[in-house]
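Why does residue order matter? Because the sequence determines the fold. Keep that principle in mind as you read this record.
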Amino acid sequence: MKNFKWEGVMPAITTQFDKDYQLDLNAFKINLDAQLSAGVHGIILGGTLGEASTITVSERTILLATTLEQVEGKIPVIMNIAEQSTTDAVNLAQKAEAEGSNGIMLLPPMRYKATDYETVSYFSSVAESTSLPIMIYNNPVDYKIEVTLEMFEKLSKHKNINAVKESTRDTTNVTRMINHFGDRFKILCGVDTIAMECLMMGATGWVAGLVDAFPEETVAIYTYCKVGQWDKAREIFRWFLPLLELDISPQLVQNIKLCEVATGLGTGYVRPPRIQLSGKVHENVGNIIKKGLETRPYDLDYKKYI
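Structure:
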């Protein structure tokens, strides 16, 4: 894709299932339409919210083809790669490129806690196997591997590794990366609850979760930040925070899919071993969603700045 940019709001889009846990492409397209209408800047398929661990390679192909058809080249479509072996990661990167993906979000080796040297070697092997732009997903909280400045220094020789999904939950890491590398690596916030702070400190984008249920509010915050309308951004972000906190839970997929049901943008079904929330947990999440909808802002004017 010409003029590919790691910037703006990029939803880690959910994979929609029916009650029998099969792909529900109609529901998927409805959500995708809402994202495009809101003005998102890219779509990321098969991430944690896309339930990467339970979708098959053939299902990824279907989701990619469906998304590419609907997006019509207007924004980049990025495939997540989170594999256990280097061989599988390389094969999937090459397959994604052959099938039309515009970029890759790349996680460290799954299940095996690789050393720094092993992690860099893994990333390098994938980078050398494809010409697609690559965003490294740096999330030591959940995946127990931190991609350090020293590791990024070694990775900088690969021109197609040019972005990071910053999920260390340390906002100073944005400044640390910029101080060390300038604009060599674009930085996208990967944690909803600190997105505004990261944007303020120089992040170029936001790989978002709650955007799947609230696309306009998410794009509004990004847009207001970009044009310096900080008061408008803060007002929406303060309303949004209780909902955004649903993203930093082990049950983030179930939480966000409940939000999608409430806003008419999803079926709510998750694929086992995930199970729909029930009892007190379901009630608590439902109360957060209910309050959010009752006080939801409806006077967004961000599109005039786009």
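Strands lie at 8-11, 43-45, 77-81, 103-106, 134-138, 161-166, 186-189, 205-208.
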